[in-house]
Amino acid sequence: MTQQIPSTEPELAGVRNFRDVGGLPTADGRRVRHGVLFRSGHLAHATDEDAAFLSALGLHTVFDFRNAADQKLEGPDVELPGVRNVNLPLSDPADGSEFWKMVRDGDIDQLRGILGDGKAAGRMIASYRSIIRERTAEHAQVLHSLAEDSVPALMHCAAGKDRAGLSIAVTLLALGVEREAILADYLESNAKHRRYRVRRSAGSAEAYSPEVMELLSPLFDARAEYLAAAFETIEETWGGVDAYLEQGLGLSPVTRERLRDRLLD
Question: Which domains does the chain have, with CATH numbers?
Answer without folding.
Answer: 19-259 (3.90.190.10)
